[in-house]
Amino acid sequence: MLKNLDPALNADVLYALSSMGHGDTLALVDTNFPADSVARHTVLGELLRIDNVSSARAMQAILSVLPLDTPLQPSVGRMEVMGEPQTIPAIQREVQTEIDLAEGQPAPMYGIERFAFYEKAKEAYCVIATGETRFYGCFLLTKGVIPPTDV
């Protein structure tokens, strides 16, 4: 255990989050997503896990250390419901709450069509699988920056 770190964040996930640079993306995905096969195409090349937690809980843990690129652009994409791109399932509403809390203001997600999401996930720095069993618990995050404190 380390002080001030969310216990859901394991060493492999922390290493990946720290290694990412500004503009890099990560895919946070549910249990139904083809996580292992997609992860093999990413920069990291292997699947990471935050097991036994929902996508919302994993998002909370990740955003406790990862800055989003929200001042410049919408920084969290959500997998759209097939045939209903405007529908926001409960899991996505829960994740939106975690994003808004972490950012201290509303930071709306943008939609990504299901098959386009798969392709974007292959281009990500890494894929992190959660224990989320509800459908459409899949998100793409863009890393931002932490400004210097002496400016």
Q: Care to describe what's here?
A:
With 151 residues, this protein is α/β, with parallel strands linked by helices. The chain has one domain (21-142): RbsD-like fold. Helices cover 30% and strands 17% of the residues. It contains 5 helices and 6 strands. It has helices at 11-19, 35-39, 55-63, 90-103, 114-122, and strands at 25-29, 47-50, 76-79, 110-112, 126-130, 139-142. A 6-stranded mixed beta sheet has the order 2-5-1-6-3-4. Strand 3, helix 4 and strand 4 form a beta-alpha-beta unit. Helix 3 packs parallel to helix 4 (90-103). The chain starts with 10 loop residues before the first helix and ends in a 9-residue tail after the last strand. The model has no long low-confidence stretch (mean pLDDT 95).
Provide a short characterization of the protein structure:
The chain is of the alpha/beta class.
Keywords:
six-stranded mixed β-sheet; 30% helix; RbsD-like fold; 6 strands; 151 residues; single chain; alpha/beta
Topology:
Blueprint: H1 11-19, E1 25-29, H2 35-39, E2 47-50, H3 55-63, E3 76-79, H4 90-103, E4 110-112, H5 114-122, E5 126-130, E6 139-142
Parallel strand pairs: 1-5, 2-5, 3-4
Antiparallel strand pairs: 1-6, 3-6
Helix pairs in contact: 3-4
